[in-house]
UniProtKB/TrEMBL annotation, chains A, B:
Family the UniProt entry places it in: Belongs to the PlsX family.
InterPro entries recorded: FA_synthesis, Phospholipid_synth_PlsX-like
Main subcellular location: cytoplasm
Name the UniProt record assigns to this protein: Phosphate acyltransferase
Recorded GO CC terms: cytoplasm
EC number annotated for this UniProt entry: 2.3.1.274
GO BP field: fatty acid biosynthetic process; phospholipid biosynthetic process
Keyword list, A-Z: Acyltransferase, Cytoplasm, Lipid biosynthesis, Lipid metabolism, Phospholipid biosynthesis, Phospholipid metabolism, Transferase
Organism: Massilimicrobiota timonensis
This protein's pathway: Lipid metabolism; phospholipid metabolism
Length: 327, 327
């Protein structure tokens, strides 16, 4: 059985959507066992499923609690879920609570894979060809060494290969030019490490303008630049959609056009909505740690659960251990 | 008279558009004098204007020449234009040649303002409210110190105040969070320097997702992150426009809608087109150095000339000297 702990309480939309997601999930995953943490009276509906265990947790880490609140909120659904991973009861943990708090509790309570200096945050980004790419680190670290960037690359590569089923994932380094000598010392050195490695398929530097082209499966970046790139993507996409809407509404012809084109535009918005991607992965820990988006609906949350399940089933952590031990 | 040198040869579209731009410019700027460098037989049309001097230059720095080509191509229109600024014949220089080569020739041949450790590249970015904001450095440097970021902020502030006429430009620092303690040591220190300064109006950190909001007039960033942010903007905008087009073309209703909405979408594209902004400024030199876009038409090129003219007329360099001497 593949065992996961599920934090039912920390999302913006409360426990109801998590309960629904657990029901959806357990019906289609017969080799999975869930430990759901939260106020037991809100989780009663799940008690009829033999593979779901309800773990009563009276406290909640709120979205606006400081990240360090996880130190004292030991009775919270989030910390209890993480502790079950720490204690080896489960191999994966899923939460849709505050990213900062969840990441901090993973850092505080979970072991890192041996040889990994820094854990990091990975997100799936939409690409032009619709296949998406994985970018890491998108902000867990304010700065990284070349060796850490190399570790991120290995982790992203193993993820793309095993979870996304890509035979030979194309790994690129986010930099300010494509030539090997571009960027600061750290990025030049990272380029060398990646270039020399026979444990992944490095295709060179990628500039900001090409990350969404679909030509790369994994984009490796230091946490500072990665965070800037991720948030700039979000900002531009949001601004542009808003401008398109207004620009079309400013003339009668445009308005009529917008009306007719609405469903096309809407489906596009979905495709480009970072929220629909279903979450971020916290990489480098001995357990699968998946952050579902705070505003996840039941479908999105169960997608995040499925991701954690796949990570456990494919033993991605074990493969990362192996990949990273042979540096 | 305000004197500018104009490189007529290095753009993608040849000298004809520069000749046209010079004619447009000189008719509306009676206190300006131009020194136009290039093959004199291509510039003949300009010889009838008393305030235009033709400076014969037989060589051309091509777009795909290495940046160091400016060292040997002393007879090129680009280097000759820069040398006229070096020799004090003009106070500003405009080119639409290769950004790298033009920036390198400024670094090689022009003095930096005293006290400025690093020159940098500044671009105007479109914002949601249509007013735009200035971002610097967008890639001249691969890394920067906190003190250099402070210099960039002062330069951006003085530019926004004098050239854009903003009473109290709002200066923000691009970072991975809004709190003062966010980011690496350099950015934390830069925050302190900016916060303590009474020579500009610092409004705090800005994240990637908010740079285009219109809430900031100047966004200060190290060259690495700034380059990533700029190019990510370009990439997302381009990808999104392409996806919108295809998504609309995939259904009959969408197609009809697109047809009707075409002019709205087109005007939006213009607004968001980094090419139409008219160029980048190379900041930190004792002369006004303006890079017009390589594919500039006559109107865009004459906008770039006007920018250089305004920089000279308002003595922006002089004000930067003053602002930077009082750190």
């Amino acid at each position: 059985m593949y065992k996961l702990s599920i934090d039912a309480m920390s999302g913006d939309l409360g426990s109801a959507i998590v309960v629904e997601a657990c029901e959806m999930f357990i019906k289609s995953h017969h080799d999975a066992e869930l430990y759901v943490t939260g106020k037991k009276e809100e989780l009663e509906k799940l008690s009829s499923y033999p593979h779901i265990h309800i773990v009563d947790a009276r406290d909640i880490v709120k979205m606006d609690d400081g990240i360090m609140s996880v130190r004292r909120k030991k009775e919270s659904s989030m910390v209890k879920a993480v502790m079950m991973a720490r204690e080896g009861i489960v191999d994966g943990v899923v939460s849709c609570g505050s990213t900062g708090a969840f990441y901090t509790s993973a850092m505080l309570f979970l072991k890192r894979i041996e040889g990994v200096e820094k854990s990091c945050l990975m997100v799936m980004m939409p690409t032009y060809n619709g296949k998406g790419m994985a970018m890491l680190d998108v902000g867990a670290n304010a700065e990284n060494t070349a060796e850490q960037l190399y570790d991120f690359a290995i982790m992203g590569y193993i993820y793309a290969k095993n979870i996304r089923g890509i035979q030979q994932p194309r790994v690129a380094l986010l930099n300010i030019g494509t030539e090997s000598k571009k960027g600061d010392e750290t990025h030049q050195k990272a380029y060398q490490l990646l270039q020399q490695s026979d444990r992944l398929h490095f295709v060179g530097n990628v500039e900001g303008r090409d990350i969404l082209s679909g030509d790369y499966d994994v984009v490796v970046t230091d946490g500072f630049s990665g965070n800037i790139a991720l948030k700039t993507c979000e900002g531009v996409a949001g601004t542009l959609m808003k401008m398109i809407k207004e620009s079309m509404m400013s003339s009668f012809k445009g308005k009529l056009g917008a009306l007719l084109a609405k469903s096309s535009l809407y489906s596009l918005k979905e495709k480009f909505d970072y929220k629909s991607v279903g979450g971020a992965l916290m990489m480098g820990f001995e357990k699968a740690v998946v952050k579902a988006h705070g505003a996840s609906d039941a479908k999105a949350f169960s997608n995040a659960m499925d991701l954690a399940y796949q990570m456990v089933k494919m033993d991605v952590v074990g493969q990362m251990k192996e990949g990273l031990s042979q540096k």
